[in-house]
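Sample pair:
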Amino acid sequence: MSRQTIITLNTNGPGLTEFTEQAAYFVQQAHVQMGLLTVFVRHTSCSLLIQENADPDVQRDLHQFFHRLVPPGDDPSMRWLSHTAEGPDDMPAHIKAALTQTHLSIPVDNGSMLLGTWQGLYLFEHRSRPHRRQIVLHLN
């Protein structure tokens, strides 16, 4: 039996927002002993990550790495961009989303996600301002 829900996350601008607890609660409430949780973000300027959730320096370093890899559209190195109508953060956000993931698959056993000890589920916001993001959780 499949189950599905949509959760909404409010971001504070660029960076990682953890939603491991919301996904774990959904899996627990589904009463599925074994299956596969698919997580899908319904947007093109943010992405999903499974990442360490113990040391916040990991999240800061990831954010800084992607900022250096793909600077804002008004940076001189980004003059080649054509898609600029939605602001200097939009096309770089699309590029970052293309380099990461818009969906994840997590095995479920005994009613729990089989994440590693330090793994958490994150929405990676790539835009400069806060957004409301929708994530689909589908358990099969």
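The mean pLDDT is 96.
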